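Entry 14. Structure prediction run on the chain below.
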Amino acid sequence: MNVAQVKQTGRHGFSLITPYKTFSFSADSSRDLTVWLACLTQVIRNALSCSEIAQRVWASPWNNVCAECGLAKPEWASVNLLVVICDACAGQHRSMGTNVSKVRSLKMDRKVWTEPLIQLFVLYGNKASNEVWGCNVPAAEQILGDASPNERRIYIMAKYIKGRYRRAHPLASSQKLLNQRLCEVVTGPDISETMSLLCSGAQVTCVPADPTCPSPISLAERAGQAMQTELLRHNEFTEAPAFDPKLNEKEQPPSAEPTDHPASKGEEELHGKLEEDRFLFSEQNDSAAYDVLDLREVISIFDCSSGPIHEFEMLTLTDRLQCTADTHQNLMSHMLHIIKVLLPCALPDLELEGVQALSRVSLREGGKLEHKDVWAMLRHDKLLLYPTKGGQGDRVLLTTSMTCNLGSSENTIEVVTADRSAGGTRGDTSSVYISV
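Output returned:
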């Protein structure tokens, strides 16, 4: 109907003109004629409006193809997941249920397409959604436009029901901290982090720690964040895959030399080689690499050497890698290379001397316990904190008089230190909460 016209052709007659055929009709009265003309005109206007919505959404090159299989000009969308999808993939999305994916047409479901929702798709859409839900898709598992219905079903369920390819939020291991962070983020414009929180299981219907505090939707509305409010409303009763902290274990020697001790049962022994921001794995010293780790996926690295065994461990959200070197010097060379890739700011070698561990953590400190993501580096008797987005670092001097409390239920460490604020007086203390 988006290219049709309606025109009166007589006292009680009218024609519906399409590119393919002209249909002629006759009404019983002038009143009926007026009703028919008004209804058909409104339908055509609505169709034109919806076609314009599709064109606006498709204006983003990422939305011009299906988010799942890559087919061109997809006419459907999941309004809670912010993906534009083809007809075949839309069917698989519907089969998961509206608690996972809410499928709407770009051209027919006109009422759902509010201006904030259109802006969410134009500014974020397929690109931002796949950076969260599909950041770890192996090439062998990525479906294409000619995929069978069963292949589409397996892939889409793995992606959204199991969360197999998602990039989990750093706070994913704690439901309480996820919900608290959601309440903080929705008052600002960071849609990408809101998507990451929702993907990791943050609850839109969560009850704030303080019963007098409003819900995330109310907070977004009060802050005037229209897009945040729209995204939250579409995810109010949806479910995300449960976060599984269980890590797959591999044993990975970084040097060209084989390890001096056999791999434990269930582990795989490989040879590793560093290359800029990648770690290449192979079965033999000089054989071709068959697996690659992007070092930017590492969230923790620490020296766990003991006696004559020189080794360190790396953690990503999905893997635990135990790396062994022939000498401690070689081990530190590998660790420092990886640390320099991870830190957002360049540090002199002197600053890194004696480093024992580096982890990406969520830090809360100050009177309001404001949240920020930092890299925490342990070196000798100092805890060095570097913002993940760059900026001036901070340091905490570790002493025997400090108090540390472990909150195992929330993966949180409370460090009570002497007050580091400019207005602190002797004897003042402050607490730093580190969520790992």
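Residues 30-58 form the longest helix (29 residues).
Filed with the rest of this week's runs.
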